[in-house]
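Standup notes, structure subgroup. Blocker cleared on the NAP input:
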Amino acid sequence: MKITFIGAGNMAEAIFAGIVKQQVGAASDVCVTDISEERLEYLSQKYGVGTSLDNPSAVADADVVVLAVKPQIFPTVWPEIAEAIKPDALVVSVMAGVPSTTIADGKPIRIVRVMPNTPALIGRGAAGIAAGEFATETDLQLAEKLMGAVGVAVRVEEEELHAVTAVSGSGPAYVFYLLENMLAAADRMGLEKGIARELALATVMGAAELMKESGEEAEALRNKVTSKGGTTAAAINTMIKRGVGESVVAAMQACAARSRELADG
Ligand SMILES: NC(=O)c1ccc[n+]([C@@H]2O[C@H](COP(=O)([O-])OP(=O)(O)OC[C@H]3O[C@@H](n4cnc5c(N)ncnc54)[C@H](OP(=O)(O)O)[C@@H]3O)[C@@H](O)[C@H]2O)c1
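Run returned:
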C-alpha cells in the first residue's frame, strides 16, 4: 500500500512517523511532498521516506493520499492533483473545516476526514474520523489503523467533527491554559518553577489516568477529593462562584461554532 502525504508539516510528520515506527507501513511505501526542499531532505534523512516536490507525480501511484496542507492551501493544491489521483485511491483529509463534499466536488471520490490533535506528535493523539459519502467500511478501518499509529482514533459522523474539534482538536490548548494558570499561581505562592512544573504535569496526567483506569465519572472523582470545609472545597467553590464551568462550556460552543463557520466558507 503506497501512501502519499501532500504537505509535510507537523501533523503529517507525526502521522507518518507513527506509521513507520508502529510498522503499519514501510518507510519505502510512504512518499511526502512539500514546497521546501530543505524540509523534505530532513524528513528523508530522518525517516527514510520518499519525498517529492511534485504533487501530481507523487499521487499518481498512491493507494492512499493524505491531504495535510493548511485548509487555505487546499484550493491551490487540489486542482493540480485531483486528476492525477488513481480512481480507486482513498483520500484521507486531516484539514480542519474542509467538508468532504468540497473535496469531492460532485465526484464519487472515497474520502475519510480526520480531526487529529497535537499530542499525535508523541504518539498520544486523539482523533475523530468520519466517512465521506463514498467511503467504505474498509476505508474507515484503514484510516483507523493509520491514525491508531499515533494515538486513539474514534469514528464519528462528519457533522460531529465540529464537536470533536471542540473536545479533542482544540482540547490540548484548554489543558495548556489551565496549566499556564496553575503555574502562574504556584509562582505567586513562591514555589520553585521546576518543582511546580513537575507537580502540575504529574497531576494532570495522573488525574486523567485515574479517570480512565477507574472508569468513574469526573464528578464522582471530584467529589471524592472534595471534603466539606476542606482545601479542595475552597478551590472548587471559588471556581463555581466565578463560573469556570460555564466558561468551559461557552468556550467549547464557540469553538464548534467557529468550526462550522470555517466549513461554510
Ligand atoms: N496542528 C494541529 O493541531 C492540527 C489539528 C487538527 C488538524 N490539523 C490540520 O492538519 C493540517 C496540517 O497542519 P500542520 O499544523 O501540520 O500545518 P503546517 O505545518 O503548515 O503543514 C503544512 C505543510 O504543507 C506545506 N505546503 C504548503 N503549500 C504546499 C503545496 N502547494 N504542496 C505541498 N506542500 C505544501 C507547508 O509548507 P510551508 O510551511 O512552507 O508553507 C507545510 O510544510 C492542516 O490542514 C490543519 O487544519 C492540524
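Discussed briefly. The first strand starts at residue 3 and ends at 6.
Next: hand off to the docking folks.
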